[in-house]
C-alpha cells in the first residue's frame, strides 16, 4: 500500500486492518507529505512491517528498496492518491519511493483518488486518470460527499471496506466455491546416480500461482509439487515429490476425489532405465544413456471412471496450436493451456506469461501479463467451461 499526502490517509489505516483480517500481508510506503497527516508508527503497528519512505535507503540491501518491494507485491494500491501523485504516475516521473515503485511494479495496480472536488474535475486531472486507465491501472472511486475543506462533491476517497472488496473480492462470488482442485506444479528430477539427475527449466511459478488463484476463488486446493524454490500457499494441502513416478502416484491417488485437475507440472517424458548406485565416473569420450518412457499422468487422469475436469499444459517451441490441439484430442482433455518457450518473454522461470487456451470447438487468448494475474484469468475460464460442461 502506497500512501500519499492527503487528509484521507487516516482511512488507509482502516484499510490495512481490513486487508490483514482477510489474510493479506501488507507493506506500506509513505511519501514525506503523507507523514504530516498520519505517523508511520501507526502503519507499522497495523501492518506488522516496517514502513518505507526513502527512495535510496542505505539500510536496504543494494539500496534498491523499490525493486524488492515491487517484486514482492501481488498487488499495489495507492490510497489515497492525490492529484500530484496521479500526475506523476501518469507521466512516468520517479522522484520519490512511491512514484518509482509504481514504475517498477509488474503486478496489478489499484488507485484510490482523494482530493478537493474542483481539483478532481479539472480537465488535466481527468486526462491523467484516462492515461492511467490506458496503462491498465484500476481506478477505485472517488465518491461524492462532504469534504474536509467544507465543500461537497466528488473527491472523497472510497470507503476502506469498498476498496478491500475490490482488492480481495467477495467470497460469495467465488467461482470455485465448494469445489476441490488438484494441481501439479514444478519439474521432476530423474536420477542417473546419487549425484546427477535429468530435469527441466520449470520453476513451478505458474502452478503455484494457479493454486493461489483457486484458493482465492473459493476452492479447496491440493498441490502436488516437484522440487521448487517457492513457499507453499497458505491453506493448501501440499504433497512434495521428486520423480515422475512419484508425481504419477500422488496425482492418481487423489484425482478421483477432486472436481478439477490442472496438470501444470513439467513432468519428464523419459527416465533413465537404470539408476547407478554409485557415482558414474568420467571414462570414455562418449557414453550412452538408455531412457524409458514415463507414465502419462494427464492421459491416465482423463481415463478415470470418476474423472475430474481435466486441464493440461503444453509448452512449445514451434507449431503451438497444432501440438496443443493434438494433445487435447489425443489425451481426451477438457481444456489445454499452451504457451511458447525459448522466447524473450514468458515461459519457464519468468514472472510473466501468455497462454493460448483450447477446448473442443473453442479457444481464447490470454495476453502476456504477470503470472498471478494470468492464473486468475485462467481459473475464471476453467470455472466457466466446467459449468458449461455440467449444464
3D structure, described in words:
By secondary structure, the protein is of the alpha/beta class. The chain is 34% helix and 22% strand. An 8-stranded mixed β-sheet has the order 12-11-8-13-16-17-18-19, sandwiched between helices. Helix 1 crosses helix 8 and helix 4 (83-90) packs across helix 7 (123-134). It is elongated, with a radius of gyration of 24 Å.
Measured by DSSP, the beta-strand proportion falls in 15-25%
* CATH architecture type of the largest domain: 3-Layer(aba) Sandwich
Query: Which secondary-structure class do the elements indicate?
Result: alpha/beta
Number of strands: 19
> How far is the first residue's CA from the last residue's CA?
42 Å
Helicity level: 25-40%
**CATH-assigned fold name of the largest domain:** Rossmann fold
Mean pLDDT: 89
What is the 3D form? Answer: elongated
CATH superfamily of the largest domain, called what? CoaB-like
Number of domains: 2
Q: Let me know the largest β-sheet.
A: 8 strands, mixed
How do the strands of the widest beta sheet line up side by side?
A: 12-11-8-13-16-17-18-19
Please give the CATH class of the largest domain: Alpha Beta
Count every helix, treating DSSP H or I runs of 4 or more residues as helices: 13
Our Rg estimate from Cα atoms comes to 24 Å
What quaternary form is this? single chain
Q: Low-confidence stretches at least 5 residues in length (pLDDT < 50)?
A: none
Amino acid at each position: 500500500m502506497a500512501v500519499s499526502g492527503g487528509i484521507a490517509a487516516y482511512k488507509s489505516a482502516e484499510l490495512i486492518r481490513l486487508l490483514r483480517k482477510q489474510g493479506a500481508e501488507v507493506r506500506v510506503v509513505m511519501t514525506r507529505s503523507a507523514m504530516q497527516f498520519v505517523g508511520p508508527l501507526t502503519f507499522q503497528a497495523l501492518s506488522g512491517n516496517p514502513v518505507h519512505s526513502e527512495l535510496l535507503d542505505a539500510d536496504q540491501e543494494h539500496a534498491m528498496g523499490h525493486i524488492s518491494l515491487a517484486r514482492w507485491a501481488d498487488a499495489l494500491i495507492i490510497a489515497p492518491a492525490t492529484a500530484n501523485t496521479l500526475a506523476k504516475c501518469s507521466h512516468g516521473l520517479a522522484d520519490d519511493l512511491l512514484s518509482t515503485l509504481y514504475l517498477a511494479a509488474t503486478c496489478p495496480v489499484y488507485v484510490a483518488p482523494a482530493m478537493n472536488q474542483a481539483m478532481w474535475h479539472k480537465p488535466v486531472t481527468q486526462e491523467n486518470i484516462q492515461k492511467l486507465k490506458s496503462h491498465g491501472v484500476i481506478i477505485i472511486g472517488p465518491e461524492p460527499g462532504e469534504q474536509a475543506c467544507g465543500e461537497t462533491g466528488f473527491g472523497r476517497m472510497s470507503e476502506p471496506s469498498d476498496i478491500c472488496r475490490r482488492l480481495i473480492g467477495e467470497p460469495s462470488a467465488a467461482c470455485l466455491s465448494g469445489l476441490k482442485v488438484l494441481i501439479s506444479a514444478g519439474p521432476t528430477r530423474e536420477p542417473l546416480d546419487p549425484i546427477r539427475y535429468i530435469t527441466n527449466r520449470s520453476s513451478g511459478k505458474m502452478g503455484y500461482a494457479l493454486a493461489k488463484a483457486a484458493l482465492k476463488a473459493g476452492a479447496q486446493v491440493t498441490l502436488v509439487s516437484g522440487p521448487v524454490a517457492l513457499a507453499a500457499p497458505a491453506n493448501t494441502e501440499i504433497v512434495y515429490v521428486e520423480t515422475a513416478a512419484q508425481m504419477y502416484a500422488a496425482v492418481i491417488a487423489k484425482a478421483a476425489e477432486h472436481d478439477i485437475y490442472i496438470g501444470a507440472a513439467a513432468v519428464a517424458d523419459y527416465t533413465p532405465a537404470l539408476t547407478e548406485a554409485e557415482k558414474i565416473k568420467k571414462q570414455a569420450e562418449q557414453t550412452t544413456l538408455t531412457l524409458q518412457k514415463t507414465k502419462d499422468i494427464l492421459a491416465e487422469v482423463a481415463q478415470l471412471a470418476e474423472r475430474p475436469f481435466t486441464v493440461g499444459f503444453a509448452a512449445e517451441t514451434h507449431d503451438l496450436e497444432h501440438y496443443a490441439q493434438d494433445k487435447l484430442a489425443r489425451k481426451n482433455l477438457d481444456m489445454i493451456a499452451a504457451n511458447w518457450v525459448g522466447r524473450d518473454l514468458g515461459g519457464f522461470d519468468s514472472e510473466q506469461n501468455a497462454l493460448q487456451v483450447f477446448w473442443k470447438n473453442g479457444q481464447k487468448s490470454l495476453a502476456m501479463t504477470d503470472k498471478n494475474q494470468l492464473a486468475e484469468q485462467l481459473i475464471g475460464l476453467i470455472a466457466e467451461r466446467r459449468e458449461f460442461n455440467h449444464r
